[in-house]
Amino acid sequence: MSTRGIRELRVVRLDGAAAAPDDDRVAVEEPLEVRVNGAPFAVIMRTPGHDITLACGFLLAEDVVRHVDEVAAVEQCDDVELEALGNVVNVTVTGEAAERVAARLGERRQVITTAACGLCGRRTIASLRSRVASVGGAWTVPAAVVSSLPVALRAAQATFDVTGGIHAAALCDLDGRVRLAAEDVGRHNAVDKIVGRALLDGALPLDRLMLVVSGRTSFELVQKALLGGVPLVAGVSAPSSLAVDLARASGITLCGFVRGRAMNVYAHHERIAG
């Protein structure tokens, strides 16, 4: 749990007719400027922490980088104004990734990417179509393991324990054990943080892992799973219709309302045994 991701403040607690001042802690939301080869690319509203992997996961989802060999360096920038210190990351890309940057900027509106909007900076729906047609993962997993994923994710949510106001995502193995986890005010950012870590570790595609997310499952979360090669996505709440369409078209098993022993399987139920 990063102390940069938590802020202490005074509040007034109401309980019926009683009111009393008290201390509370909330999840931090701050802008992160992502630069590519020294030039501004996007501003992401996020919870500080894992900024390097967040930037790399974001650029993977934006189809700027496709594998770790295209990432020459990632560093926090210190040549910035004092108020921006710690909130600017530069990613140096090489090869074909350097050629993609201009094209990707042309597909985006120059807006701040909020913690909620995911890929809302894109110009057209057509530009959202992934370059990856489908995932691998010719395996099955017991339904009981899928049911256990939200419990495993919850155990990794240290910042949520303190603030109660932050999302999380985790990559789990086929036994349901958490391999990578991250928290953020944005579900999209949490996924980018763990997929970015896997990218830098040279671990893509993630075809032997499952992705579990807190909250609902949107189109962009399924797209991030597709780009990372993740064959199964589980959410504790509902998916959107476009998320279901993409999962069905790309071979991803999509589970929603995974709570206790119950779940809805919206796509490719054949990966779930029992």
Plain-language structure description:
With 274 residues, the chain is of the alpha/beta class. It has 2 domains: 30-128, Ubiquitin-like (UB roll) (Roll), CATH 3.10.20.10; 141-273, 3-Layer(aba) Sandwich (Cytidine Deaminase, domain 2). Helices cover 28% and strands 32% of the residues. It has 7 helices and 15 strands. It has helices at residues 51-61, 96-107, 143-155, 158-163, 187-200, 219-228, 241-250; strands at 6-15, 18-27, 30-36, 39-46, 71-76, 88-93, 112-113, 141-142, 167-172, 178-184, 210-213, 232-235, 253-259, 262-267, 272-273. The protein has a 6-stranded mixed β-sheet with strand order 10-9-11-12-13-14, sandwiched between helices. Helix 7 links the parallel strand 12 (232-235) and strand 13 (253-259). Helix 1 (51-61) packs across helix 5 (187-200), helix 5 (187-200) packs parallel to helix 6 and helix 6 packs parallel to helix 7 (241-250). The longest helix has 14 residues, at 187-200. Residues 120-128 have low confidence and may be disordered.
